[in-house]
Design a protein that fits this description.
Elements: H1 2-22, E1 25-28, E2 36-37, E3 52-53, H2 55-61, E4 67-79, E5 82-87, E6 90-95, E7 106-107, E8 112-121, E9 126-135
């Protein structure tokens, strides 16, 4: 009986250790109020036919629900899943879910990224909803 109890304790401790390893923070590491949990992510990583645009082009001529790609930096975390994205032409609020950050990689305010997503142009707010975030080397 003692052997079974010891095995159960060891299995429980190993399980807790694995849960702790999974819960390590990851994602955006620039100005923020809270770290992001790591998330497993897989998917297509090849070329895209979605148009690469600047923030200015998207704000000036973008249409609601238009798919686009942006390249630049995430310069701040604005709370929840809202961030400020910047390129050489301007800034836009972006919505990035935790699982859209690259698994196991941190993203700093200095790191260049490519965002693939959809432009949300409304009467009260304009933002870019991110489907995929890729680090640019």
């Amino acid at each position: 009986m003692r052997h079974a109890t010891t095995s159960l304790v060891i299995a429980t401790l190993l399980g807790l250790g694995a849960a702790t390893a999974i819960a390590q923070p990851a994602g955006y590491t620039g100005p923020s109020s809270a770290p992001k949990p790591a998330a497993a992510q897989a998917g297509y990583a090849g070329p895209s036919s979605v148009q690469l645009m600047t923030v200015k082009q998207l704000l000036d001529a973008g249409k609601d629900d238009q798919h686009a790609r942006l390249q630049g930096r995430i310069v701040s975390h604005d709370g929840g899943d809202r961030y400020t994205f910047e390129d050489a032409t301007g800034r836009i609020t972006v919505e990035i879910d935790d699982d859209d950050f690259p698994a196991g990689q941190s993203v700093s305010a200095q790191q260049r990224v490519e965002l693939l997503g959809e432009f949300d142009k409304g009467l009260r707010k304009t933002e870019f909803e991110v489907d995929r975030l890729t680090l640019i080397q």
